[in-house]
Structures are given as structure tokens and as C-alpha cells.
Write a structure and sequence with these properties.
CATH superfamily of the largest domain: NAD(P)-binding Rossmann-like Domain
CATH topology of the largest domain: Rossmann fold
Largest sheet: 8 strands, mixed
Strand order of the largest sheet: 3-2-1-4-5-6-7-8
CATH architecture of the largest domain: 3-Layer(aba) Sandwich
Shape: elongated
Number of helices: 11
Oligomer: single chain
Low-confidence stretches: none
Distance between the termini: 34 Å
Length: 266
């Protein structure tokens, strides 16, 4: 199987490294297309053999073409690669907001997969939602999922519109977690802890909580009740959260992210 990654940015390199590290394909089966000469030289210095500055006949020999570029860069890339794309190839796009219909109008293949990974994919802990056109077979979907699983976990959706919600929840999600963590770190420092102490306490608390959730079959609400004893410190904090409608604000924020994802796709 030959795979071309168009775009050598953070996610392009993430996929290149993950595919090789997980033995999903050999280095000679991986091709990289990068419009920056510096990036071409960089990938070659890392031992990648098939790194190109311009598309050419080699594109036609690819089984999968991964579009790991910024959405706005498609206007420059699509006309260059379209002459080499054919109907048996799968085009896998991770461009935020660009629909499969938009891709199909520019690239001559009915086999299109659209995926939305998130930042932790860079360390193999990502969450990726993906969907496909009807022309992609079940076997091909299985193969694509195996590739995406090299960067974390995946969920397949029949409905493409679900990817807007994926963007709002898991795509943007790490930023929400960092936002809450930063508030806790800043408050801990106000309480007299050093920055190093505050960061250690907060980071370990988050990691411990996630591991608890993954280890035992209890819901978030059940874990909250285990931590929050009646009349205790946790209950005092939760009461403040409720007084300021924190949960409502979080929900409104996620809905705003969803709305913006829809707008970007139009």
C-alpha cells in the first residue's frame, strides 16, 4: 500500500511518524508532498525517502492521498494534484470545515474520507472522528480506521454533519481542559504555592481523575459524589460553580464552537 501525505506540518508529520512507528507501512511506501523546500530537506534529513516539492506521476500510484494541509491552501494544491488523481484512489482529508462535496468537486475520485483529529494525536493519545462517501467500501473504511488508530482512538459516523460536533467536542476539547487547568494553577499560586508546585498538583490531579474514570465503571456524576462529602470542601466549590452556572456556560461554549464549525464549512 502506497500513501501520500500532502502537507508536512504538525499533523502531516504526526501521521508519517505514527504509520512508520506502528508498522502500518514501510518507509518506501510513504510519500510526502511539501511546498516548502526547507521542509523537503527536513524530512529527507529524517530518513524519509520519497519527499517531493511538486506533484507528478507518482501521485497516480498512490492508494491513499492524505490532505494534511490548511483549508485555505486547497485552492493552490487541488489544481496541481487533480490531473494525477483517479477514481480508485481514496482521498483522506483532515482539513477543518471542508466538506466531502467540496473535495469531490475538485478531485476526480468518489472515494473520499473526512476526518477530524485533535492535538493529542501527536503523542498517540488522539481522538479522531471520521466519515466517508458511499463509494468507500467497508474494507477500505476498516483499513483507514487502522491507520487513524495509530494516533489514538477513532469513531466512525455515517452522518458528515457529526464532524462539526466532533470539532466542537474533541477537536477543540484539549483547549477547554487547559483552560480549566490554568485557572486551577493560577489560583493555587495565589494560595501561596510556587508555579512548579501548582503545576504538579493540577497535572497529577487531572491524570489521576482520568485514569480513575478509565479503570472503574462509574459515571462522572458518581465520581463527583464520591469526592464531595456533605458539608465538605468539594461541596463548597461545587456550590459556587452552580451559583455561577458554570455547567451552563460550558454547554453554551460548546454550542458556540459547533456553530462556528458549521459557519466555517459553508
Amino acid at each position: 500500500m502506497n500513501i501520500l501525505i500532502a502537507g508536512g506540518g504538525n499533523m502531516g508529520k504526526t501521521y508519517a511518524d505514527a504509520f512508520i512507528a506502528n508498522h502500518a507501512l514501510a518507509k518506501e511506501e510513504l510519500y510526502i508532498l511539501e511546498h516548502s523546500p526547507e521542509k523537503v530537506a527536513y524530512f529527507k534529513s529524517l530518513g524519509f525517502e520519497n519527499v517531493f516539492f511538486q506533484p507528478d506521476g507518482y501521485v497516480s500510484h498512490m492508494d491513499i492521498v492524505i490532505l494534511a494541509i490548511k483549508p485555505q491552501d486547497r485552492h493552490e494544491l487541488f489544481p496541481k494534484i487533480a490531473p494525477f488523481i483517479h477514481s480508485r484512489q481514496i482521498v483522506l482529508s483532515i482539513m477543518a470545515g471542508v466538506t466531502m462535496q467540496t473535495i469531490a468537486q475538485s478531485l476526480p475520485t468518489p472515494k473520499i474520507v473526512r476526518a477530524m483529529p485533535n492535538l493529542p494525536a501527536q503523542i498517540g493519545m488522539g481522538m479522531t472522528g471520521f466519515t466517508s462517501t458511499d463509494a468507500v467500501t467497508k474494507e477500505e473504511i476498516f483499513n483507514i480506521q487502522n491507520l487513524l488508530n495509530t494516533t489514538g482512538k477513532t469513531l466512525y459516523f455515517d452522518d458528515e454533519s457529526k464532524l462539526d460536533a466532533v470539532t466542537a467536542i474533541s477537536g477543540s476539547g484539549p483547549a477547554y481542559v487547559f483552560y480549566f487547568m490554568d485557572a486551577m494553577i493560577q489560583t493555587a499560586m495565589q494560595m501561596g504555592f510556587t508555579k512548579v508546585q501548582a503545576e504538579l498538583m493540577v497535572e497529577q490531579t487531572f491524570m489521576g481523575a482520568v485514569h480513575l474514570l478509565n479503570t472503574y465503571r462509574l459515571s462522572c456524576k458518581e465520581w463527583i459524589s464520591k469526592v464531595a462529602s456533605k458539608g465538605g470542601t468539594t461541596e463548597a466549590a461545587l456550590h459556587q460553580f452552580d451559583q455561577h452556572q458554570l455547567q451552563h456556560s460550558i454547554c453554551k461554549g460548546l454550542q458556540a464552537a459547533l456553530q462556528r464549525a458549521v459557519e466555517l464549512g459553508q
